[in-house]
Amino acid sequence: MLKRHFAGVAAVLALAATPAFAADKPIVIGVPVGLSGANSVVAPSVVQSAELAVEEINAAGGVLGRKLALEVADDASGAAGAQKAFDSLIYQKKVDVLISMETSAARNAGLPAVTKGKVPYIYTSFYEGKSCNKNMFVNAWVPEQQVPPIVDAFAKEKGAKTYFLIGSDYAFGRGMLAFTKSYIEKIGGKVVGEEYLPMDGSDWTAIISKLKDAKPDALITSTAGGAPNVTLTKQLRGAGVSLPYANLAVDEGTAKSMGTDAEGIYISASYVTGIDSPENKTFLAAMEKKFGSGLKTPNDLSVPQYEAVYLYKAAVEKAGGTETAKVLEALPTVSFTGPRGTISMSKQHHAPLTMYLGQVQGDGSVKVVSSFKNVDPGEQCPKLN
């Protein structure tokens, strides 16, 4: 049903031409995203954010007199699907840029095509960090921005000294938990267990048994965004696990889909719907107006997508066109003030971000516990500066 729902989106987004647009062909944005597989829970919200940004920009006259159009391709949330999706978008659809969140496996599989095809790529997903490519810019968080608020809160407020780590067995899961373990040990804590399940796995029974046997003070998980979050949390609740629990991969939209199972989970995010700013209120109102009852909850995986379209617009305008070399030169020098505040991918192709430590409530909303302004991403890609 999901694929059928987005069948129309996969074609170039056709908006009525207006006199504001020149006769030039549209600037085409490719969006490879997991409409199927692990990311299928969050992909609809990502596509919606891209659609709104394109509609707003086109209504305001486009970019250098040209309208924007979208080409969406299902990467099936994995490496094999990503290779097909990237190849199709770059070599067949001839897109001008790729903008999307993806699993780390999909991103890594698609990067060779980005390099060979010489297209700009704005990666809008939080990830394990230190993925570097001259054509790729990142406007989402990395472990240096996301993990410390959680571990510090557990240590100081919960008195946690021992931790159990659970992840999906791929680059994101292992990368996030490797950083988490090092940070826990840095502040004097101890990891008493670390377990992984394949990304498409759904039976966490054996791992939960090991968790119970280890009797840690706190649990931190890093699973593939979407379905694995749902299955793991449901099984943890079913097994009666009630210790302090933080999930490094749950976004607000997924939390809502999990119902009462998500209540009490701690998250660290660069976006929550409760951000009290004019830009966020305007964004939420526009999303509600456009999608109505079909709106998917805006979240930390979809809002960066919206902002990235605007960042690309700013770069094209500064570059005077879509030529890749000039756009890549402009991308780290432009900024956009949107739902998360002012975003600029100026630090080694990454972005300083305001981070929010939150706790999921019974209705799936996130209560902000504390915030941290303009957290630096740290050393990510020093050779790209």
TrEMBL record:
CDD domains: PBP1_AmiC-like (cd06331). Residues 26-364 form the Leucine-binding protein domain. Keywords: Signal. Residues 1-22 form the signal peptide. Pfam families: Peripla_BP_6. The keyword Signal applies. It comes from the Bacteria. The keyword Ribosomal protein does not apply. Belongs to the leucine-binding protein family. PANTHER family: ALIPHATIC AMIDASE EXPRESSION-REGULATING PROTEIN (PTHR47628:SF1), PTHR47628. This is Urea ABC transporter substrate-binding protein. It comes from Hansschlegelia plantiphila. The lineage of its organism: Bacteria, Pseudomonadati, Pseudomonadota, Alphaproteobacteria, Hyphomicrobiales.
